[in-house]
Amino acid sequence: MSNAGQLPLVLIGGGGHASVLADILLRQQRNILAVISPDDISGRAVFRGITHYQQDDDVLQFQPDQVRLVNGIGMIPGSDIKKLLNQYYLSLGYRFETVIASEAVISPYATISDGAQIFPGAIIQAGTVIGQHSVINTGVIIEHDCCIGDYNHIAPGSTVCGQVETETDVFVGAGATIIQNLKLKHQAVVGAGAVLTKSLAGTEIAYPARAVIKSIQ
Ligand code: JB3
Question: What is the number of alpha carbons within 13 Å of residue 211 lying toward its C-beta?
């Protein structure tokens, strides 16, 4: 049973990212009509009872004004499948739902753009703008007055300090820290656990110090 006035949803993808989205949406009593995934989804309990289609064009049975899509394919550096699917469906007149977990903390003075996905435990402070179709993953802190571009992925537990600006397709790895006032250009990547103290040009990668692994004996 969907919330009154909210359109039913079709979830694109049936893997880990999609399962977290389904979990958020089901807790919000949203009606997920179908999961679209070429792979078997029966191993994930969260999808139990939801119709499974395997072809992307199975979405076309739903009228664009009768449903909203949710892109459940994770954005990882070097993979553009999420964005390609978004653009395909957008070109057909479909729109993507903005998903905000009930357990996220969003300032009323922040702006969350269409299709963005804000996961549980995320904190978005005043003056910040989250771009279209960007993912702010579990437990992320986006401090005040940031401008996060479209199609970014800010991975779990990372911290973006005040007045940081990112362009499109930026990836910030799990547990990374970006200090205040930095600018990250198109397709910049910050590796998991990195502490970024200077701005990044486009397609640059900031690598963290790596753990040294030695055997105990
Ligand atoms: O690390 C975290 C917290 N999340 C990661 C996320 C950002 O990216 C996660 O651990 C994964 O690394 C990744 O999540 P994702 O995309 O859910 O990965 P995976 O579990 O491998 O699921 C990929 C899903 O996309 C599968 O259900 C595939 O069937 C589906 N898929 C692949 N190509 C597709 C297509 N689905 C559709 N509809 N169309 C496709 O072309």
Answer: 5
